[in-house]
């Protein structure tokens, strides 16, 4: 393994393998060609024609969401989508735009719509060094079971803001009091575009840093994390380089943390690959 | 003006307006088509054919550099290159590769070879806020005269390392003692690709942060900076957004600083454009 291997794994998207999903003349997703073919059976909702698929259901976001939900029902029945997650994400051409419709989280990779999440690096100072709180994901998680994770991470569900998601997840995942979360600093975003078995993950992760008091110990409340460990930051970075122990995208968040805090030396042969590989253009 | 305007200005490169400069089967530069046409007169050094220009001079880096220098001499005489800078940059497909040849800095945009620089954010804590040392470039600078700049910035000349360039420039530009410079943290790289009057700037800037003591005052020694000011970081960021007072690429370095230190709010409408627009793939 290497740092760049993780970056490449998260960016294995190939344009030739997908067609754009277009709504109102703007791209809102990337459909793998097999997924686009499966959509052709729902011509009242999606017009699949040659090199693109167009959303043709009309009405407001509620009406379009209802029409898409019927399609998702059928896709779940046909095993194109594994199952309903009963949590919806807003679909929009760009962050901040009016949502075109809401989509069940389970169907997001099928449609390749952009998903937004929040990741928190919880760290302590330790003399001249730093330690990073790391969680281990529960064995029954559908995505990346048993893998190491940030202390707090979660998707931004429809209607929730970035900061609101941070506070909610910090409480559920690590029992971090709101008064502490308020000190978290927004420090950028990591983005990647990845083909998985299900389709395309086109993800943007808003990244926060939070320096935690030495006596703070996170406690999970929602069953998604089975335990936490306070790892030397340098060990976490080595573990990123040498193993696949961390969830695929958490490798990128930790590399971004390492870079921003001067924990990677400029003489590291992968320095520029890391410094330039954690962000994609917002196309 | 807006944050995104500065990012766009530094990334106005259009692939259709250039041809690759290839050496040993690998791209080492981007030649604007008019510049490629001007190179066609030197067939013993460059073979310009259709959609690419190939370096055909043979020999080691010294021999190739000498052959290219003769071409640069002619290009200066013909006003394709403004003048010799008498400082050479290594030309290589990727950072860390063996240099193919050395090129006078004045000719770098003509050939569109990638140039590497070092920029230092010198800052002080000020209660809960931060202040940033900002220099004003001398009126006789060829590039961006009178514009605001980082406390220290400079190109990485051939044979110089990243850290060595930082120490050298910190001494010449701001008289920062080596014992202080040693505390500077490498915090990533900013990159952009820009067409200028002269050709293509394909730049990678290694970025360092240095917290300076409250009583430190920079002093310029090389005549490149006429004065320094200690600006509230928030004012510097506003000035980036609202004006063209900073040198084009320094806007990007300050935005990167702002982002990493939590000085931009996630609700800023340009947050994601900034978070994703300061880095280019290393193609």
What can you tell me about this protein's structure?
The structure is a homodimer of 283-residue chains. Chain A has 283 residues and is α+β, with helices and mostly antiparallel strands. Helix content of chain A is 29%, strand content 32%. In chain A, the strands form 3 sheets. In chain A, strands 7, 8, 9, 10, 11, 12 and 13 form a 7-stranded mixed beta sheet that branches. Chain A has a 4-stranded mixed beta sheet with strand order 2-1-4-3. In chain A, strands 5-6 form a two-stranded antiparallel ribbon. In chain A, β7 and β8 form a beta hairpin. In chain A, α1 crosses α8 and α7 packs across α8. The model of chain A has no long low-confidence stretch (mean pLDDT 97). At the A-B interface, β11, β12 and α9 of A face β11, β12 and α9 of B.
């Amino acid at each position: 393994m290497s740092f760049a291997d993780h970056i490449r794994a998260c960016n294995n998207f190939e344009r030739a393998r997908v067609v754009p999903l277009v709504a109102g003349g703007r791209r809102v997703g990337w459909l793998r060609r097999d997924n686009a073919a499966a959509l052709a059976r729902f011509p009242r909702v999606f017009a699949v024609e040659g090199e693109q698929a167009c959303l043709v259901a009309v009405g407001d976001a509620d009406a379009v969401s209802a029409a898409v939900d019927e399609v998702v029902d059928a896709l779940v029945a046909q095993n194109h989508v594994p199952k309903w997650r009963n949590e919806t994400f807003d679909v929009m051409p760009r962050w901040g735009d009016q949502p075109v419709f809401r989509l069940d989280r389970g169907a997001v990779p099928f449609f390749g719509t952009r998903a937004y999440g929040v990741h928190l690096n919880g760290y302590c100072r330790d003399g001249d060094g730093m330690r990073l709180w790391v969680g281990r994901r529960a064995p029954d998680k559908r995505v990346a079971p048993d893998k190491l994770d940030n202390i707090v991470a979660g998707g931004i569900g429809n209607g929730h803001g970035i900061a609101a998601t941070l506070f909610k997840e910090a409480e559920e995942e690590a029992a971090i009091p709101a008064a502490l979360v308020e000190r978290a600093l927004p420090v950028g975003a990591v983005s990647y575009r990845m083909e998985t078995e299900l389709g395309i993950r086109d993800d943007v992760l808003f990244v926060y840093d939070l320096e935690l008091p030495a006596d703070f110990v996170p406690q999970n409340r929602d069953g998604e994390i089975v335990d936490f460990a306070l790892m030397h930051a340098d060990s976490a970075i080595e573990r990123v380089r040498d193993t696949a122990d961390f969830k695929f995208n958490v490798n990128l968040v930790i590399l971004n943390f390492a870079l921003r805090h001067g924990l990677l030396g400029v003489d590291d042969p992968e320095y520029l690959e890391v410094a330039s590989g954690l962000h994609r253009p917002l196309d």
